[in-house]
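Appendix B, record 7
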Amino acid sequence: AEEQVPNRLKFPNLSHLVEILMVFPISNATVERGFSTMRRVKTDWRYKLGEETLEHLMRISVEGPPLAEFDPTPSMQKWLGTPRRPDVAPTGPQKWKHVVIDSDSE
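C-alpha cells (predicted):
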C-alpha cells in the first residue's frame, strides 16, 4: 500500500497562499471606519496632535461610551486633584472684563 502524502506537503506554496487568504479581511470597512474616525478626531484645529494622543482619542471615539451616557465628573475630579507645577501659568479661557459702551453718550 502506497503512503498518502497530505496535499499541504505536495503543494507547499499553494498551501501557504491559502493560509494567507484565510486571514485576509473580506472587506476594508474596518480600515475605512478607522480613517473616518481619524478625520473626525484630527481636524485642522488639532493638526499638532502627537501619535499617542491621536491613538488614545481615536480609541475613545471608537470604543468609548456614547456621549449621552458619559459622566465626566470622575475624570474632572481626578484632573482637578492632580497637583500643578507652580512655575507654569494656567491655560484656558481668560476672564475678560466686560466693557459696556453707552450708545446714548455720542
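Remarks on this record: The radius of gyration is 29 Å. Residues 63 and 69 are 13 Å apart (CA to CA).
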